[in-house]
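Molecular record:
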Amino acid sequence: MDILKVENLTKIYGSNDTKVVALDHLHLTIPEGQFVSVMGPSGSGKSTFLHMLGGVDIPTEGKVWIDQTDIAALNETKMAIFRRRNIGLIYQAFHLVPTLTVEKNIMLPMLLDGRKPDREEFQRLVELLGLSNRLQHFPDELSGGQKQRTAIGRALLCHPAVILADEPTGNLDQENTKSIITLLKQANQEYRQTIVMITHDEEIAQAADRMIQIEDGRIVSDEVTAL
């Protein structure tokens, strides 16, 4: 089943002499459980593409479906609820709440939704993340790798339809980069979690099942990198 579908996706900023076509009529489908990397030079449109998939920005033209929902048709309130339940977001800058513990940061989307996670499932997840002994620590007491693991846990706990990762290793050293990519691959394989990851690093991109290259707002290559 295709969990994500993009049809004629276009984003234009400005007009006339200041017109910039950030995305130019993109068509794409991603099946459930696939790990996809998206590459492209600065200004290619890859970050705009991720913003469209996350419902952070509205297309000028075209559609985005996630789990058979046309997200562009949702109003702001419904989009916020849909994003919380169906889209896991992982950022380069972590975006943890500094006044919350690791445990509460991981649980945050569910707490905002008025739900409580299954404790056994939560425990399995934090063990996978290697955070069992850090649950009562605050973000400023964590290393960069531990912060990103916390952000990944927050994205995974709700079993979202898709995880969108924006340069998730951009602020990490080589050792932590390898660890985080290994963790994302584990999440993809063990949870059958669909992942779309933006990266500028081809070696990191090759870790995914499929690699898409965007240039000038268009998909210029789309290839399977692993079976």
